[in-house]
Every structure is written in structure tokens, then in C-alpha cells.
Amino acid sequence: MGVSAEKSLEELTMRDRFALEDLVDREALGELSEGFYKLFRVPLRIFSESGLLLADAGETHRLYTYLATLKKSSSAVQEVVAMVKTIDPKLQGDVTYPCVTGAVYRIVGVTYDRRQLGRIILGPFLPHSVHDLPASLLDLDPEIELPKARDLLAEMPRAREETVAEIAQHLVRTLDLILFSGHRALLASSMHLASVQESFKELQEKNEKLQHAVDRLKELDRLKSNFLATVSHELRTPLTSIIGYSEMLVEGMAGDLNLEQRDFVRTIYEKGEQLLRLIKGLLDLSKLESGTMSLSKSYIDAAPLVRDVAQTVTPVARKKGVQIVVQTEPGLPELWADAARLRQVFLNLADNAVKFTPTGGSVTLSAQISSLESGAEDGSGLVLLARRAAIEFRVSDTGIGIPESERERVFDAFYQVDSSSTREQGGTGLGLSIVRRLVDAHGGAVHVEDNRRSGSGSVFVVRLPCRRATVF
Amino acid sequence: MQLDFGARELTIKLVYYGPALSGKTTNLQALHSAADPNATGRLMTLETKDDRTLFFDLLPLTFRDQGGLTVRLKVFTVPGQVIHASTRRLVLQGADGVAFVGDSRISQTEQNAESFMDLKENLKENGLALKQMPLIIQFNKRDLCDIRSDQEIAELAAQGHEPVYLSVATQSKGVIESFAGLVYLTWSALDAQHDLNRKFSFDSKAFLNDVVQKLGQTRSVSQILSARVGGALDVLGPEAVV
User: Fold this and answer.
1) How crowded is residue B239: how many other Cβ atoms within 10 Å of its Cβ?
2) Which value, to the nearest 10 degrees, does the dihedral of the CA atoms of residues B146, B147, B150, B152 take?
3) Which chain A residues are closer than 8 Å to B62 by Cβ?
4) Which of A40, A205, A447, B163 could form a disulfide with B228 if both were Cys (CB 3.0 to 4.6 A apart)?
5) Which residue of B has its CA nearest to A203?
6) What is the pLDDT of residue A387?
7) Tally of helices (H runs) and strands (E runs) in chain A
8) CA-to-CA distance for B65 and B208, rounded, in angstroms?
């Protein structure tokens, strides 16, 4: 096998020079050979092309054990065995080779895809035509005890040469099937591996492209935030002058204005203020996005905060005919938070609620003890995850409500459920994204629910962790 | 192509390409059953349980030249289904010649074109250009209804330079002709590139004769090669195979 799957695949399909020992299991080959021996009583050995003995079935016959004790016979037999081992069927074809005892060996090649991978040596066995020890052996070694050797020869397995040739062919065909299956499995697994690698390579390339795109977008986002911060700052400077001078004009510091002039200048002043709020919002957003917003946290009471927010929105609500209701649970624990930023959060939510509630409706601001789960949204592992005490703030309105599909997106910057309502209600689409980021910065969570109690409208639920981190 | 000087062995890779179910495996099966058992091994198929080619089919064919050079032709098919893109690319690696098996039915026109573009793309991925590749085109399934007419194919074939063959692989019609054309083109291109005939004193005519004979043909090579309906069996010029 090559280093890479590609290389090995090419080698496997094009060169496929296998060694027999690589394609077959040696133990299984041994069992197969034993089976053949038991069936036909002809000993057999299987050698790989490199001369490695892979299987050896059958016992040394007693005649050979006896001859091994005699010097001359022993060396003659050894000579034959050595000769048999050098026979190459690739060059000579299948060969029957005689032994000094009159027995013979059958040597056949194991080929696969027209290449010789090894040899099978069957024998020694006695052909039917041989009935006695050859005279040549007796001449060679006078020490042989003829009656004993004859008895032993008679015990040797006899077989017709044609039968043994057929047995050999059968074994070769069996091996061919095994080799084919092995080769096929080898190819299939290499192909599988190569395919997986190829797919992996493709995925990696795609990942790289995606990563590149992400990096580029992140860089763009950073540039955008920087731009936003710079522009907001630059816009604010002249705007401060516009607001300041129009305020002075309204106050009559540059002489009296008639009623109409005062009205015009007041409009300039109010719109200037509105523009300033918008710019501040943009600045906040860019600070929150870039992580440069610093929070000055301290221990604060939730109830006064809620009441203060309610008071702030009351004049606008009253003008519109919307009722403001405050419900705070007594004994609320302290929060560890930036008071000004939290006020901004609730003011924003309350402002929105009033804005989207029709005349005759109501906006409820409430605060109660709750808990905050960390990281167990699907409810798994609750027992392990600390539940922290929290305060749940709810800002409910009786307005048109927010469709479920839009509830996550309302927190995206510049997003508005219905852009026509922006023109009607005013607003920039920045408020809620600032709310979410500020709540996140406090380690809290915010989401929108249906206002089930009143049957219409929505509830913005903000949960903020308390000072004490109690498990309860 | 793999050349083993020591063993005097040359291995050539031929790939049958084409859309799913166009008859690539059937072509190999027809070649296998026509081939002299002494010249071929088992047809190896790596297929799924529904008989679709999963990785590839492989038919080995071996021919021995009088000069002692052994030529091994390894004939592959690729899996046609779109999802096996990476496998097709892998099988195509190192191909010396390609037979494109198209489906003759008019309804399959688009699949043929898509697969052909896929071939082009995959060759490119492997650093090869289509015009460098010895290529024959086979219009298979001539026995079905609603097929492109012989005349239409002949007219289209006349405009291209690849030899085009008509076949019914299930009846072994046109299979050997296509294969002979592919072997002829591939050998010519390899010879032009590597000067094989001279290096090995190889008789390519005798080789082709041997190939068609071992595929059970009694007709002459030129008779078989002339079965194409269009294109030419010109040896690719040196500029095309550099």
C-alpha cells in the first residue's frame, strides 16, 4: 500500500503485484490445506513466490522417517526435496517429479490474473504403477532392510497421477476464488477510503472558502462599527450647536420672537433633540457591538427603577389615553447592574409599549422574583446547572402584538416588524437591539411573549440575575 | 499507462464513462463473455444490492505480443449516478482512453450532455484535457423506441472528430466494434507519445488482430474498425498528445 490512498488505488488497479501472503489468511490457508489432506491423504505444501512456506499439511510418512535414519538414503531424499523446491511451474508448467523411493511429487503454480503468486507441492504419493522400491535406491543404499522398507512402502498413500493433477487443479481454483475475493475486498476498501478522502478534501476546500467569507464579513462588520462610531461622533458636534442655539432663540436670548417664529424654532429644537437621541442610539449600538461599552455597576433596587420609568412615560401615555400600571413584588433582592443603562432598557420597552398601544389600552410594568437557568434551554441537565435568583421584569401592552415568526428578529438592529408602522410611530429600529445587547451585557435574557392576560398585545420579559447566586 | 521494463509488461487503463444506466457495465459483461478465457480474468464488479455500480467494474484482458511484450488492458466502468462524483474522478485517474456510453433515447439527451460535461470537468481536475484523451462515443440501446435516428447521429457525428458507434449492449451488438476503436485510438496515441512500437519492436497490427480474435471475431480489424458511423480513427497528432 502506498502512502496516500490515491497512490495505493492506482497501484492496486494498475500494478496489482500482490504477494500470496498478503491476500490470504495464513491460518485459514493452513486449515484449507489440512482439509485437502484429510480428504485425499496426499500431503501438500503451499509456498509463496518468494519461497515462504504458507501451509504444510500431512505428516512425514514412516518410510521417509526410516530412510532419514540411513545416511545415503537420507541425503538422496534431501536432494530430491531440494530439487522439488526449485521447480518453477511458471517456466516449466505443472510438473510431476519422481523421488528416489518411487513416489512422486506434483508441483503446480498458483496464479492470479496471469501472474504466478506461489506454488503448491503435493506429495510424496505412490502412483498406481509403482509396486516395489526401485532397484536404483537399493543399489544406492545397501543398508536398507528390504522387508521393512517394503512394508513401509505398502503403507504409503496411493493415487493415480491424473487424480492428483485434478486435486491440484481443484486446489488452484479454490485459491483463485479466495484470491479474487481478497482482491475485490482490498479494492473495495481502498476505493472506499479514497472516496472518503476525496470527499473530505472537497469539504475542506468548502470550509476554507466559508471561513474566508466569515473572516471577510467580520472585517466588514468591524469597519462598519468603526464607521458608525466615527460618523455618530462627528454628527453630534454640529448638532449640539444647532440644539443650543435654537434653545437660546426659544428662550429669547437673541431678542423676542413672534409666536410663529417661536413655534418654528421650537420644532427645530425638538427635531434636533430627536436626532441626537438617534445618534446616541447608534453610538451605543456600535459600542455594544464592538464591546467597548463600559458598565458602571452597583447594587440597585429594582422597584424604584420601575416606578421611575413609569413616571417618565406617564405624560406621553396620558396624552394618548393609555393607562400605566405598576406591579412590583415586595422584598425584591438587589440587582448588580448599571442603573442608567437599565433605565435605558426599561424606558425603551415602556416607550415602545405606549407607542404601540391604542387609546383606551394599558401598559403594565411589573417586577417579581424568578430564576435564571444557565445553558439548559432544552431542559436537560437542569439538576446540574445552577439556577440563579433573578428578577423578572415584564412590560406588557395591549397593542397589536408581534407575530411568533418575528419575535426573534425584532431584536436585530434596524429591523421592524412592519416598516409602515415606523413612519406612523416614529423610531429607528435600533431600540430593541440596544435593549438585547444591554441585557446580555448584564448576564440576563430578554424575549417576547403573547399577552395572554389581556388577549392581545405582547409582553417583553427581561430576566436579570440578582446579587445572591442561590440554588433554590 | 504503466510500463514495467523488467517484466516487459505494459498496463493500459481504459475507462467506460457515461450517465447512470446507460449500459457501461453491460458493455463489460458483453466483452467478458465474448473474450477467450485465456485472455481474460474474472469480471470484477463492485456493486450495490440493486445491481448499480458502486465503485467500478474491472475487466482485465491480457495479450502477449510475439516480441514477448505483455499488454494488459484494464477496462473500468465508472458509477454513473450523480452522487458518485468523487469515485468517478478517482477511477478516471490515469486513464489512457475513454469510451463514452450514451443512452440513445431522446429523453436522455440532457443526461448524456451532463455526463459528458462531467467527464470534461473530471479530466480537467485530473490535469487532462478532453482533446488529449483518446475518446470514442457509443450510442447504446439502439433497440429501444423514441431514440435519435441513425441519420441524426450520423449527421452530428460527421461534425465531431471522435469515432461514434451504435450499439445494443444487451445483445452484444456494436460492443466489440466500440472496444476495438477505443483500443486502436488509445494504442495509437500512446505509441505517438512513447514510441512504443519501435522501443519494443511491437507489431501493433498483429496486436489488434490478436485483440479482435480473442474477442471471438472472424472479421478483419479494418472491417471492425469501419463499423463507426462518424468521426475518424486518425492517430491523434503529436500536438494533441504532448
Assistant:
1) 8
2) 90
3) 113-114
4) B163
5) B86
6) 56
7) 14, 13
8) 10
ipTM of the complex: 0.76
> How close is the nearest chain B Cα to the Cα of A197, in Å?
9
Nearest to A10 among B55, B70, B93 (CB): B93
Matching residue, cell 430564576 = A371
Q: How many CB atoms lie under 10 A from the CB of residue A385?
A: 13
Q: Can you tell me the distance from the alpha carbon of B222 to that of B232, in angstroms, rounded to the nearest whole number?
A: 13
- State how far residue B17 is from chain A, nearest Cα, in angstroms: 17
Name the pairing type of β-strands B9-17 and B44-47. Answer: unpaired
- Match 503403507 to its residue by C-alpha cell: A155
Phi first, then psi: give them for residue A254, nearest 5 degrees: -110, 30
Chain B residues within 8 A of A188 when measuring between CB atoms: 46, 55
CA distance B144 to A368: 79
Task: Report CA-CA distances (Å) from A239 to A231, A275, A429.
Answer: 12, 8, 21
For residue A7, the chain B residues in CB contact (below 8 A) are none
The helix/strand/coil state of A402 is coil
What's B83's DSSP letter?
G
A406-437 burial code (b ≥16 CB/10 A, e <16)? ebeebbebeebbeeeeeeeeebbbbbbbbbbb
Q: How far is CA B15 from the centre of its chain?
A: 6
**Tens digits of per-residue pLDDT, B156-201?**
888 888 899 999 999 999 999 999 999 999 999 998 888 888 888 8
* A195 closest CB neighbour out of B74, B76, B90: B90
Residue A292's CB: how many other CB atoms inside 10 A?
Answer: 10
Measure in Å the smallest separation between the Cα of B12 and chain A Cα atoms. 8
C-alpha cell of residue A342: 437599565
Interstrand relation of B70-77 and B97-103 (parallel, antiparallel or unpaired): unpaired
Average pLDDT of every residue of chain B: 88
Listed in sequence order, the residues at least 6 apart from A355 whose beta carbon sits closer than 8 Å to its beta carbon are A425, A426, A427
> CA-to-CA distance for A206 and A217, rounded, in angstroms?
16
Segment B112-147, tens digit of pLDDT = 999 999 999 999 988 888 888 999 999 999 999 999
Helix (H) or strand (E) holding B4: strand B2-4
Is the pLDDT at A422 greater than 70, yes or no? no
State how far the Cα of A345 lies from the Cα of A342, in Å rounded to an integer. 5
Instruction: Tell me the three cell numbers of residue A88.
Output: 518453477
Cα gap B228→B177, rounded to integer Å:
8
Per DSSP, A466 falls in state B
Among candidate residues A343, A329, A435, the one with its CA nearest the CA of residue A392? A329
Question: What is the CA angle B205-B208-B211, rounded to 5?
Answer: 150
List, in sequence order, every beta strand (DSSP E) within B31-108. 44-47, 53-64, 70-77, 97-103
C-alpha A122/C-alpha A107 separation (Å) is 6
Are B42 and A14 inside 8 Å of each other by CB? no
Are B101 and B140 a contacting pair, CB within 8 Å? yes
Residue found under cell 534431501: A78
Q: Do A195 and B87 touch (CB under 8 A)?
A: yes
Q: Do B56 and A191 lie within an 8 Å CB cutoff?
A: yes
Q: Is the pLDDT of residue B237 over 70?
A: no
Chain B residues with CB-CB distance to A204 below 8 A: none
Mutate to test the interface with A, among B42, B49, B64 (most CBs of A within 10 A): B42
Q: Please tell me the distance from the alpha carbon of residue A170 to that of residue A176, in angstroms, as a whole number.
A: 10
In this complex, which of A6, A113, A187 lies closest to B41 when CB atoms are compared? A113
**pTM of the model as a whole:** 0.64
Question: Between B13, B62, B70, which is nearest A14 by CB?
Answer: B13
Cell triple for A107: 508441483
- Tell if the CB–CB gap between A13 and B60 is shorter than 8 Å: no
Q: Between chains, do A184 and B74 touch, taking CB under 8 Å as contact?
A: no
Q: Say whether B86 and A195 touch across the interface (CB within 8 A).
A: yes
